[in-house]
Automatic annotation (TrEMBL):
Naturally occurring in which organism (per UniProt): Circaetus pectoralis
KW Hydrolase (keyword) present: yes
Lineage of origin: Eukaryota, Metazoa, Chordata, Craniata, Vertebrata
InterPro entries xrefs: Nucleotide-bd_a/b_plait_sf (IPR012677), RBD_domain_sf (IPR035979), REX1-like_exo (IPR034922), REXO1/3/4-like (IPR047021), Ribonucl_H (IPR013520), RNaseH-like_sf (IPR012337), RNaseH_sf (IPR036397), RRM_dom (IPR000504)
Annotated protein name in UniProt: REXO5 exonuclease
Domain of life of the organism encoding this protein: Eukaryota
Molecular function per GO: exonuclease activity; RNA binding
Gene label: Rexo5
Keywords tagged on the record: Exonuclease, Hydrolase, Nuclease, RNA-binding
């Protein structure tokens, strides 16, 4: 959660799972910006990174998402303030990648800071044999055909290949003539917008070998634009309104314009060709041509400045100019061909990049860093990690990270274990020290006594059991000869049904229905209790168990959850309706931002319900009034406020597909032994939530704050 809206990410249902690498990407870019090879995260976007006052990571040791849902009501502050929730996919220890947990790291004496990085990262001009460019191409000049990608290289780098299953329907340029070293070069670049389909082309530029622009055309996407990405694409809604040109028109024109022996040049050209849905057999990719160690790539902007002495993609411009980028890529390829690999290696680009970034950091330090925060000594890479831990990266750039709690950092930059400090003491130190640091890791702990396997298994069973009960309703009584099909149809209008059974132990028959989504069960209770169904006036209620006594409180708090703000649930859809159909049906609703059509995570089949997210809460309330009773292609719709549209949706799906008992309280010896520990846990969790609230309120505006539940495995 940021104390100002800078973070943008898609967070419905299936999207609420990320990898450790993706979280690492976010933290690295938030803390370093474009320094130290940091780039925008691939899965979300940080706007105005330079305005971030700092990054704070709060680690809750011994706790996982299980604890969050078991003690949901106790995490009063956490669930009302932190807008985005993710499940971290199982992986190696993420904490180790943050600060080398468990490693006694020693500092390295480096007189010149970043510029003293070993030759494995920066090639020395006196020893060009180590340079990746020399290793790949040798030192002698060669013709352009030596630098075109082979078929294997194209496959490896996700280029569209003729006959590939993923390229069905792609247009082949039919440039099949054999290439020679005098074949014509053409620079190509596209700008894309995000649509309902994915990335779609909105602008295409083609330049010839003399740098003359042959094509610079706006393109109307086929699907509805979700994000114009104006900051990068330069494209706005207004620009595309009068445009009639479609992708098929561009494909035809490019096919006619390119000679049969044309060689296309671009920077990460695979993305452009994929967006164009075109296949071309002969390409030079400048992101691969100017190779770096470990397969990493230089950005086009840096190469243009370092190699050509040209400034492109200037910040004062609105978005990138594809003609400028195409021309820059073309000139880079021409420089490489004319000057040869040895000349390029002598430029020592890695060193130039390092020096440039260090200069940028030095300029920013006066503004971003409090007085007295000196340059820290660089730490060696922990031997058990494949890349430097995160704190290494920060210290290399001269920042002074703060590490408090289980692992702490002393004045020399060493990570030291400290297990004796209480959570209250950690909070007090954090309140004093966090404002003095641009990156802080604050670690709280439940204690090792709370990680026993039987305790965790008991907690999981209680959460599973409660969620199952919340998904279950009982309805009746019905007549002896009631029509089960009509009952299923009526209750099915509230949402997807997981199971339906007839209860015969009662004087008159009842039905027990377990839904797949929480909103469906609540909608059934609210709309069908007291209604006439299958010829009987029925009562609809949830199971009555000790765990369900606070069910109404849960429902109320889930509605207030910030994750469900501006989100409504719609049921009664025909399963034959596609996402495109629904987009068209709901397009008239004001401020509609996103539509999420749940599907079975195993079969991939869509359900008869959806979630709609609106830009404003009032627009969501207005939509509820419009949609209730609305008929879409013969189906009468029902809707209500969302309860589990985001992260909890995935958990509920797991509950529905777990092998545990269905409904009811779990009463066994382990559960009874658990009750005392659970009471203590509840108190501890409430205190931790209060600590987080106090720490969060003390943060400056524009601080990115992340709370991590690392679990025990």
């Amino acid at each position: 959660q940021e104390k100002s809206s800078h973070l943008s990410a898609a967070l419905f249902g299936e999207d609420c799972e990320i990898s450790h690498d993706q979280l690492y990407e976010l933290l690295k870019y938030a803390a370093l910006g474009k320094c130290h090879n940091a780039t925008q995260p691939s899965w979300c976007h940080i706007y105005h990174q330079r305005h971030l006052a700092g990054v704070v990571v709060i680690v809750l040791h011994e706790m996982s998402q299980l604890h969050f849902y078991k003690f949901y009501l106790q995490f009063k502050h956490l669930r009302r303030v932190f807008r985005h929730r993710f499940t971290l996919t199982p992986s190696t220890n993420f904490l180790a990648s943050l600060y080398g947990e468990g490693a006694n790291v020693k500092p390295q004496n480096t007189a010149q800071g970043l510029t003293s990085t070993s030759s494995q990262c920066i090639p020395k001009s006196s020893d060009l044999q180590c340079d990746p460019i020399i290793r790949k191409y040798g030192e002698k000049k060669q013709g352009l055909t030596s630098y075109t990608l082979t078929l294997e290289e194209q496959k490896k780098n996700d280029y569209p290949i003729k006959g590939s299953p993923g390229c069905k329907g792609y247009i082949y340029t039919e440039c099949d003539q054999q290439r020679t070293d005098s074949s014509p070069l053409f620079g190509l670049d596209c700008e894309m917008c995000l649509t309902a389909k994915g990335n779609e082309v909105t602008r295409v530029s083609l330049v010839d070998a003399q740098g003359q622009c042959l094509l610079n055309e706006l393109v109307k996407p086929e699907s509805t634009v979700v994000n114009y990405r104006t900051r990068f694409s330069g494209i706005t809604k207004k620009m595309l309104l009068p445009v009639k040109t479609r992708l098929s028109d561009i494909q035809t024109r490019l096919k006619k314009m390119l000679p049969h022996d044309a060689v296309l040049v671009g920077h990460s050209l695979n993305a452009d060709l994929q967006a164009l849905e075109m296949i071309h057999p002969s390409v030079i990719d400048t992101s691969l041509l100017f190779a770096r160690n470990g397969g990493r790539r230089f950005k086009l902007k840096f190469l243009a400045k370092a190699v050509l002495g040209k400034e492109i993609q200037c910040e004062q411009k609105l978005g990138h100019d594809p003609a400028e980028d195409a021309r820059a890529a073309l000139e880079l390829a021409q420089f490489f061909i004319e000057q040869g690999p040895a000349k390029v290696a002598e430029l020592n680009l890695e060193m130039l990049l390092t020096t440039e970034k260090l200069a940028e950091v030095s300029q920013k330090k006066a503004v971003l860093q409090p007085q007295g925060c000196g340059v820290q000594k660089q730490l060696n890479e922990p031997p058990h990690l494949s890349k430097p831990c995160f704190l290494d990266c920060l210290q290399v750039t001269g920042q002074k990270p703060l590490l408090l709690g289980r692992q702490e950092m002393d004045s020399s930059g060493l990570c030291q274990s400290n297990l004796s400090t209480s959570n209250k003491q950690i909070l007090q130190r954090a309140l004093e020290d966090v404002p003095l640091s641009t990156f802080s890791i604050i670690q709280f702990s439940l204690g090792p006594e709370y990680i026993a396997s039987h305790l965790l298994a008991g907690l999981y069973e209680k959460v599973r059991s409660k969620l199952t009960d919340m998904l279950t309703i009982y309805a009746g009584p019905f007549e002896e000869s009631f029509c089960l099909k009509s009952v299923k149809k009526e209750f099915g209008r509230c949402g997807p049904i997981q199971s339906l059974t007839v209860v015969t132990e009662t004087y008159q028959p009842y039905v027990c229905i377990q839904y797949e989504v929480l909103e469906a069960a609540q909608l059934a209770v609210e709309s069908l209790n007291g209604a006439e169904v299958a010829g009987s006036c029925i009562k609809v209620q949830r199971p009555i168990t000790a765990a369900m006594l606070d069910c109404d409180v849960w429902i109320k708090e889930l509605e207030l959850d910030i994750e469900n703000e501006g989100v409504i649930y719609v049921a009664g859809l025909k399963e034959s309706l596609t996402e495109t159909d629904l987009q068209e049906e709901f397009s008239q609703l004001k401020d509609l931002e996103t539509l999420f059509l749940p599907k079975d995570l195993q079969s991939g089949k869509h359900r008869n319900c959806c979630f709609l997210k609106f830009q404003k809460s009032q627009s969501a309330l207005d939509a509820l009034e419009v949609i209730n009773g609305w008929t879409v292609k013969g189906s009468k719709l029902r809707s209500r406020n969302a309860l589990a549209s985001g992260h909890l949706w995935r958990w509920i799906w797991q509950v529905n597909h777990s092998n545990g008992k269905q409904g009811g309280n779990i009463l066994d010896e382990k559960m009874e032994q658990l009750s005392d520990s659970e009471q203590d846990l509840r108190k501890k969790v409430k205190k931790l939530d209060h600590h987080i609230k106090k720490l969060y309120r003390s943060l400056q505006d524009n601080t990115l704050c992340i709370v991590l539940f690392p679990g025990v495995n």
